[in-house]
Amino acid sequence: MAADIRALTGVRGVAAVAIVIYHFGDVHLYDGGTLDYFGIPHGYLMVEMFFMLSGYVIGYNYRDSFNSGSLRYYATFMLKRVARLYPAFYAIGLLYIAKIALGFTNDTLAQFSGWDIIGNLLMVNGWGLHVNPLIGVSWASSAEMGSYLLLPILMGATLRRGPWVCGLAVVVACLAVYAIGLSGRGAAGRLDVVNGDTLYPLLRAVAGFTIGLALFRVAGRLDRLGPAAQDGLLVAVLAGIVAVCAMASAMGPGDFVLYGLFAVLVAVLSRDGRLARFLFGNALVYHLGLISYSIYLIHPLFVSFAVMAWRHFGQTQSVFIAATAVCCVAIWLLSYLSYRLVEMPGRRWVIATFGPKVATKAPVSKNAPA
Questions:
Q1: Which helix (H) or strand (E) holds 344?
Q2: Quick check: pTM over 0.85?
């Protein structure tokens, strides 16, 4: 496979855009309810796609890095994860603080205790530690970081041992997902459990991450199918996702069915076939995938602005859709700037500053004695 699986990067962008539309389409425009102009059923499950993708990509890139069991490799891996997640998280967090300070939200800075400040700085608000998050959606990034901490265990169960151990790990992950669905803590659906006062958000991430690692182990078997068969399978999976979203209710079994379909989708896209590249690896979708992390963190900033525009310029559907479109352009621009000016430079700076130093030999002069 190529070093960069374009279809997997692209589908991350599709998932991020779907979450944006989901949150803009589920706002309280009227007292006592919501008005869905463009709702996406089960849109909250796109976060599960992030977790599975991360598990697969980590398995793809680091499957041989921990063979020796050295803490040095693990420490280097964790440093790279910190460099990947934290710079943009801090920079975008400053935008949220500015929004609160300028009075564009009902939140106040006084509502954050000392414990909340520490928890947000460490980004552990998704670990069941009762941390009031500055960026509400960052629970997913926090929970994903928890999965990285558990990587030696998760990778040992899914990639280092025999197929029976890997299968058992997948069964345990599926049972965890089922337990989350039965918890009754879901907001918009069975699996929409995001409250940082419980371990369920972290469990969502670990389960998805485990399944992603297992998918890396078995997805290569799809190469036995010809290109046409892989394209057909992709069409069938996408059709199944659309059908479930159209028919299943939020509190029915739809969440679990979609969870399974997402796992199959990741496996199919990992082969980077013709149709997969056409749909998810084209230039536009791939670009959105590159900046998807910033899109995910930034977009909640603008939901309230769309609502304010709706109230100010006329409470009509066209006004809210136009305001949403303007907000989406702003989200894209800020996300692109965040990726270019914060994410990538921040990643390089963290690794260069705190990473292991590589010794270089001084050049030998031609006139130096042998």
A1: helix 344-354
A2: yes
